Automatic annotation (TrEMBL):
Protein name: Transposase
Coiled-coil spans in chain: none
Sample GO molecular function, one term: nucleic acid binding
Gene3D superfamilies: Ribonuclease H-like superfamily/Ribonuclease H
Alphabetized InterPro entries for the sequence: RNaseH_sf, Tc1-like_DDE_dom
Signal peptide: none
Superkingdom of the source species: Bacteria
Domain Tc1-like transposase DDE: 5-76
Database matches in Pfam families: DDE_3 (PF13358)
Amino acid sequence: MSLHLAEIAAAVSPGAHAVVMLDQAGWHLAGALEVPANMTLLPIPPRCPELNPVENVWQFMRDNWLSNRIFTSYENIVDHCCEAWNRLVDQPWRIMSIGMRRWAHRS
């Protein structure tokens, strides 16, 4: 996770500060975690998928491309997941619509 945060921090514009929302998985908030100086971690409450739009992305992928299957091997699982991910990446408008929170915008 520290390496992941370092990658994100490297993409932050000089002089800017990033806020990274994350769930409270143990590795997200581990005591040994190295958080870059240009970043603040914002843990969301547990069991609140409505506050974490990526949860809806994963659900969309399961519902549309990954459910009701029998996987034959680990490699088969990885292949199907990669195919689903690439299909989603080819549809940026879908990602935006899945992650949109109408209640989070002022009218």
